Amino acid sequence: MWTPEQRTMVSPGMQQKVLKLGEIAHARGQTLPQMALAWILRRPEITSALIGASEVSQVEENVKALDNLAFSSEELAAIDGICAS
Question: Which alpha helices (DSSP H) does 1-85 contain, by range?
């Protein structure tokens, strides 16, 4: 998942957080970017989210976030716990 160059740019603690968040996303049937989009779009005060896509396939992949916008209270607690640690 991480290239050698990326490993030197991202702290081990942050790498662990990303891996844990990825596990939650996988359990939801989503990629981590899809879960991140769903997470931000769940907020009623958020009306849109900008994505950085340079290819049509990236847009198509990101739009799949809309397939699962609901989070359980357990998922939200786990995400908050990971991000706060």
Answer: 4-9, 12-27, 32-41, 56-63, 73-84
Report which of residues 9 and 27 the model is more confident about: 27
Residues in the chain: 85
Cα separation, 37 vs 19, in Å, equals 17
Segments forming the whole domain that contains residue 15: 4-84
Contact call for residues 49 and 41 (beta carbons, < 8 A): yes
Q: How many domains does the chain have?
A: 1
Q: For the segment 10-63, what is each residue's pLDDT rounded down to a tens digit? A: 888 998 999 999 999 999 999 999 999 999 999 999 988 999 899 999 999 999
Nearest to 35 by CA among 81, 71, 83, 77: 71
